[in-house]
Design brief:
seven-stranded mixed beta sheet, binds zinc ion, 14 helices, Metallo-beta-lactamase, Chain A, about 450 residues, 20 strands
């Protein structure tokens, strides 16, 4: 007589399943938690284990993994995971943990018996239907025509480090880094922080069923620059094409970092399951084109691989440097050996000159200004700029308009206001015509170089 072990913390399910199996001629063992189930399995070596997924203490995944890891268990039993939740991630994870089958409660006796009589292989019941993607991406002519004019910059997320919703951030906004640029038939998204969620909603409303085609440039893969992507609605339509470009991270490639934040147990839908045409491109060159828009990248001084981008559009040039710590400011402290320090400082200044060259004569620069000068003293080496340095760099580089960006999550609206005011004063002290605004969620700036 074949033996089945049923493990479920719900006594009604346990009784019903046991009755079904006994009526069909099985010898049935019962356990009402995972621990007891594993013990019984080891002692009695059942042919089949029917195990609930969600149980306190030891869940179904744990039972599967323990049984599969037990080398003395030969032949291995067939394991059927049963669950009341019908999610693709639960099925996939059960399979990965070692289950042969996944059945949705309430369990139909005939369905269970049919599965238990199978000799081998895997039967996943009620699998979600595969998403149908056409062989070629749809035509996006309408979208390209619509996004061409006038060239514009739109702020969807201006905060650094972590999203900060609440009363104290209503004016500037609490979403993390995301800026949209529309120019020359291209829609270019700079970073995919939490702000990208609102951009996605806007695009869905604006273009309805017209296919969308856009590029996302990632400066680096810290959470505040990628965490919104799983909530970007256009990626869920098979009509849309999304190209994500960035540079390889220190440990793993861009594709792997972006998809790992969507792996279970962090997120219920994997990046591979997103229906849109997604293409992740690891950039090698520091200059490339997106359609007619010329893009240059430069490495920033920030932990890990981090770049800034400069876009040349028909409406003007835009530089996006959300995370950067000026080299000379970082190297200025502490000074121990004066001879070496001179050398180090000279080297650091040279590095900063590269940055100045990178943003020289730019129409719009969106720059890290996370701290005021006083706060910076206790954040040396954190990879961010103080507002005084941001203004100085912009003035030296003859930038036309500077947006203070990557606001500290601890800065309320009043603090950002005061930093904006101080930055404007500083520009005046330097005798510069530099315009300065603190970046604010929802602000849309029309670029018109000719009008200036
Ligand atoms: Zn950041
Ligand atoms: Zn960062």
């Amino acid at each position: 007589m074949k033996t089945a072990l049923v493990i479920d913390d719900d006594s009604n399910v346990l009784t019903e399943l046991a009755r079904t199996l006994e009526d069909a001629g099985w010898r049935v063992l019962k356990a009402d938690d995972g621990d007891q189930g594993i013990e019984l399995a080891v002692a009695e070596r059942p042919d089949v284990i029917v195990c609930d997924l969600l149980m306190p203490r030891v869940n179904g995944y744990h039972v599967c993994r323990t049984i599969r890891a037990n080398q003395t268990f030969f032949p291995q039993p067939r394991i059927v995971v049963i669950s009341s939740s019908n999610y693709e991630a639960d099925r996939t994870n059960s399979l990965e943990a070692g289950a042969d089958d996944f059945l949705l409660k309430p369990i139909q006796p005939s369905e269970l018996l049919q599965i238990l009589e199978l000799d081998g292989g895997t039967t996943f019941i009620r699998k979600a239907p595969a998403i149908l993607k056409g062989p070629t991406p749809p035509d996006t002519t309408y979208f390209r025509q619509a996004v061409g004019t006038p060239p514009s910059v739109h702020f969807w997320g201006v905060r650094g480090s972590i999203a900060t919703p609440g009363d104290s951030t209503l004016k500037y906004g609490g979403n993390t880094a995301c800026v949209e640029v529309r120019a020359d038939g291209e829609l270019i998204v700079l970073d995919a922080g939490t702000g990208i969620r609102h951009l996605g909603r806007k695009l869905a409303t604006e273009f309805k069923s017209y296919p969308i085609e856009l590029s996302i440039l990632i400066t680096h893969t810290h959470w505040d620059h990628i965490q919104g992507f799983p909530f970007f609605i256009p990626a869920y339509s098979p009509h849309n094409q999304i190209r994500i470009k960035g540079y390889e991270g220190a440990r793993t490639g861009l594709q792997s970092v972006l998809s790992s934040q969507m792996e279970s147990p962090f997120f219920p839908v994997s990046m591979q399951q997103m229906p849109g045409y997604l293409q992740v491109e690891e950039l090698k060159e520091m200059q490339f084109n997106i359609g007619k828009v010329k893009v240059r990248a430069a490495f920033m001084n920030h932990p890990g691989i981090c770049v800034g981008y400069r876009l040349e559009t028909s409406g003007g040039s835009i530089a996006f440097l959300p995370d950067n710590e000026p080299h000379s400011r970082l190297r200025m402290t502490p000074i121990t050996d004066s001879a070496q320090s001179q050398e180090v400082l000279a080297f650091a200044q040279k590095q900063d000159e590269h940055l100045i060259d990178f943003i020289r004569d730019c129409d719009v620069v969106i720059m890290d200004s996370q701290y005021d000068a006083e706060e910076y003293k206790s954040h040396i080496g954190w990879g961010h700029t103080c507002v005084d340095d941001a203004v100085a760099l912009a003035v030296i580089a003859k930038v036309k308009k500077l947006f203070l960006f990557h606001h500290d999550p601890d800065h309320d609206d009043a603090k950002v206001d005061s930093m904006q005011e101080w930055a404007r004063e500083l520009a005046a002290i330097h005798g510069s015509k530099l315009e300065v605004d603190a970046a604010r969620e929802g602000v849309n700036l029309v670029l018109n170089r000719a009008a200036k």
